Amino acid sequence: MAELEAGSISMAAGGGGRLRNALSGMLCAFALLLIGVLAFSIRLFSVIKYESVIHEFDPYFNYRVTQFLSKSGIYEFWNWFDDRTWYPLGRVIGGTVYPGLTLTAGTIWWLLNSLNIPLSVETVCVFTAPIFSANASWATYLLTKEAKGHGAGLMAATILAMVPSYISRSVAGSYDNEAVAIFALIFTFYLYVKTLNTGSLFYATLNALSYFYMVCSWGGYTFIINLIPMHVLLCIVTGRYSSRLYVAYAPLVVLGTLLAALVPVVGFNAVLTSEHFASFLVFIILHVVALVYYIKGLLTPRLFKVAMTFVLTVGLALCLAVVAILAALVASSPTKGWSGRSLSLLDPTYASKYIPIIASVSEHQPPTWPSYFMAINVLAFLVPAGIISCFLPLSDASSFLVLYLVTSVYFSGVMVRLMLVLAPAVCILSGIALSEAFNVLTRSMKFQRPISDDTLPTAGDSTPGSSSTATITTSTKNANIKKEKMGTISKERSSKKSRKETELVGSSPVRPEKEEKLCVLPSEASAMGILFLIMLCGLYVIHCVWAAAEAYSAPSIVLTSRSHDGLHVYDDFRESYAWLRHNTEVDDKVASWWDYGYQTTAMANRTVIVDNNTWNNTHIATVGTAMSSPEKGAWEIFNSLDVKYVLVVFGGLIGYPSDDINKFLWMVRIGGGEFPHIKEQDYLRDGNYRVDAQGTPTMLNCLMYKLCYYRFAETDGKGFDRARRYEIGRKHFKLTHFEEVFTTQHWMVRIYKLKPQKNRVRGKLKLKLKSSSKTSLMRKGAGKKNPWQ
């Protein structure tokens, strides 16, 4: 009879466990849905407060390419030669762009229109980044779950959905490559860890496909193809080699490299550049180690030593040969096989010394400590706890997360743009730390509840709600777990085993709880800890909402400022582009600094000399030289390039700091790198860059100064520059080779037209006038005697 009761209790416990698992699964899915809604909605402040518009500079090129793709199709896109950029060189778009973002948005637009949802291409482009931020949050959950369970995964996903570092590049309207690349990065890491845990070739194939999508989306794919080999090498060195590690890595290198070579912008660089050599070297080492383990399983210890010597000799010789070949290939390249940006990451001073065009970009500057606090806020204090949790216990998945954090911290310290890569690692480890902390604190409060003698369970207690039922339920749950692991044992033997375990646990029900009490905290300390963590999370949420609503919601093309008399909106950029579109010829060429090339082409539909692609340093240096030259020399350069209009951005009237005057020294440095007669010292006074009365004559006479400050003294009578906060040096001058054709309302954008070359007919008329005057003089002196006769 007792056996029947115990069996019925175990069946009820099994049914309760299944119900509990189903409810937890439903709650987890609902929580993930809410996290996705949170990630999407927190990025809509830019649309709610302003309007649905593309942000920044690079996204306008991506938007223009997506428009072309939706109108002309995929084949025309691959073969598109754009003659409106880099005049007179042009640009092959299909072979020089990472197509992942464009193809993704184009596919979404096509699917929506196929379902009779008529959204414009611009609307799809605006909301692509918020959509993929939700996908990135879900991918973060999957990755963290593989390392530390569901609770840590949900916490990490929630943190990533709000982290300011990721919001800065994924707000509505931020249509850049990082919008989809961060999701691809996290999802590739998840599939790699999943393959490590399961050894499944299916997940390994998916991992290679995810890596292919990452290659299509962003040049940062080289971070993946170097981080994963580092982790594989770490596992080999620490004695954690397994067949699962082989399955996780080998298909990624082979299939991933073949797929990466299919992307036109990458091509054979997938096997020829130094960024990829580490993966091939680790691939060889992995096969040597796999061969050693295979031989060890076949031979006796004595023969294994002989074979080990042979394998190591051959393996070392092969590795040395590969290293020699790679060294020869690297030595033949002037940059040692590395791209300029990669060398800037390995040597932070490289760009400033040799490639000023890279150093001139604000995103490529090292971050400051306030930048870290703005980007990750209180998460910086949780990361160390997350690292400790990863070592308790250490697994392949947790060691990968720690390695990911360490490498991303270094790269983010070199280039502020790469704080975007750091954000997922920080969120994952902070989520693990919070999950473990809440787990310890809540468990402490749970086991601190007093247990009286009357409520102690006995073997005969079977009433619902009693502690004996809870004890039996716990024991039967453990029995069910063991039954799942031992599937080959018959049902009869397993039921007997569960009954025995039930009786054993029922005879001493308090002992497990006493063991748990040894590792718990006092209830008061636990309550204070929980309140502190809740307060910390609240501060993080407040900071994230503020960053999303105020710091990162304003589109750079429409500027705003607040003062005592209210909100001021500066729409000068679109005003100037609209003027160019409506008041110039279709084939007119517009010269400006490269920052504004993408916007000019996309919004004004006019041909530009340089743009944000920065693939031709000489062409950019030519424009920089023209801006740094005197008016006549600049006119000759622009005229040789068939330029008709010159556009400059000026912030002296309203105090806009990111104008061309503040960027001018970079124009001088880049121009001087190709044309030695441009020297930076000529524009500095005692090492200081000034445009006031202390400015050098070379500075006060260059084209950039004249185009920015022409008629500026008429605004207030003094010529006070609000961006530099002093009066300008040269106030009253005239232009001889350029004429002002348009200045926006707040003087932020000024457009000048090149004056035509003087007509030669006028010169002939002057010669005729001179000749006629000479003949009249000769007639007057005809009465005088010629001394030569």
From TrEMBL:
<feature type="transmembrane region" description="Helical">
    <location>
        <begin position="422"/>
        <end position="441"/>
    </location>
</feature>
<feature type="domain" description="Oligosaccharyl transferase STT3 N-terminal">
    <location>
        <begin position="26"/>
        <end position="429"/>
    </location>
</feature>
<dbReference type="InterPro" id="IPR003674">
    <property type="entry name" value="Oligo_trans_STT3"/>
</dbReference>
<keyword id="KW-0464">Manganese</keyword>
<comment type="similarity">
    <text>Belongs to the STT3 family.</text>
</comment>
<feature type="transmembrane region" description="Helical">
    <location>
        <begin position="21"/>
        <end position="42"/>
    </location>
</feature>
<keyword id="KW-0812">Transmembrane</keyword>
<feature type="transmembrane region" description="Helical">
    <location>
        <begin position="372"/>
        <end position="392"/>
    </location>
</feature>
<comment type="subunit">
    <text>Component of the oligosaccharyltransferase (OST) complex.</text>
</comment>
<feature type="transmembrane region" description="Helical">
    <location>
        <begin position="92"/>
        <end position="112"/>
    </location>
</feature>
<dbReference type="InterPro" id="IPR048307">
    <property type="entry name" value="STT3_N"/>
</dbReference>
<feature type="compositionally biased region" description="Low complexity">
    <location>
        <begin position="462"/>
        <end position="476"/>
    </location>
</feature>
<feature type="transmembrane region" description="Helical">
    <location>
        <begin position="124"/>
        <end position="143"/>
    </location>
</feature>
<feature type="transmembrane region" description="Helical">
    <location>
        <begin position="246"/>
        <end position="271"/>
    </location>
</feature>
<keyword id="KW-0328">Glycosyltransferase</keyword>
<feature type="transmembrane region" description="Helical">
    <location>
        <begin position="211"/>
        <end position="234"/>
    </location>
</feature>
<keyword id="KW-0460">Magnesium</keyword>
<dbReference type="GO" id="GO:0004579">
    <property type="term" value="F:dolichyl-diphosphooligosaccharide-protein glycotransferase activity"/>
</dbReference>
<feature type="transmembrane region" description="Helical">
    <location>
        <begin position="149"/>
        <end position="167"/>
    </location>
</feature>
<comment type="function">
    <text>Catalytic subunit of the oligosaccharyl transferase (OST) complex that catalyzes the initial transfer of a defined glycan (Glc(3)Man(9)GlcNAc(2) in eukaryotes) from the lipid carrier dolichol-pyrophosphate to an asparagine residue within an Asn-X-Ser/Thr consensus motif in nascent polypeptide chains, the first step in protein N-glycosylation. N-glycosylation occurs cotranslationally and the complex associates with the Sec61 complex at the channel-forming translocon complex that mediates protein translocation across the endoplasmic reticulum (ER).</text>
</comment>
<dbReference type="Pfam" id="PF02516">
    <property type="entry name" value="STT3"/>
</dbReference>
<dbReference type="GO" id="GO:0046872">
    <property type="term" value="F:metal ion binding"/>
</dbReference>
<keyword id="KW-0472">Membrane</keyword>
<keyword id="KW-1133">Transmembrane helix</keyword>
<feature type="transmembrane region" description="Helical">
    <location>
        <begin position="277"/>
        <end position="295"/>
    </location>
</feature>
<dbReference type="GO" id="GO:0005789">
    <property type="term" value="C:endoplasmic reticulum membrane"/>
</dbReference>
<keyword id="KW-0256">Endoplasmic reticulum</keyword>
<feature type="transmembrane region" description="Helical">
    <location>
        <begin position="399"/>
        <end position="416"/>
    </location>
</feature>
<feature type="region of interest" description="Disordered">
    <location>
        <begin position="452"/>
        <end position="509"/>
    </location>
</feature>
<keyword id="KW-0325">Glycoprotein</keyword>
<keyword id="KW-0479">Metal-binding</keyword>
<keyword id="KW-0808">Transferase</keyword>
<protein>
    <recommendedName>
        <fullName>dolichyl-diphosphooligosaccharide--protein glycotransferase</fullName>
        <ecNumber>2.4.99.18</ecNumber>
    </recommendedName>
</protein>
<feature type="transmembrane region" description="Helical">
    <location>
        <begin position="307"/>
        <end position="331"/>
    </location>
</feature>
<feature type="transmembrane region" description="Helical">
    <location>
        <begin position="179"/>
        <end position="205"/>
    </location>
</feature>
<feature type="compositionally biased region" description="Basic and acidic residues">
    <location>
        <begin position="481"/>
        <end position="503"/>
    </location>
</feature>
<comment type="pathway">
    <text>Protein modification; protein glycosylation.</text>
</comment>
<feature type="transmembrane region" description="Helical">
    <location>
        <begin position="527"/>
        <end position="549"/>
    </location>
</feature>
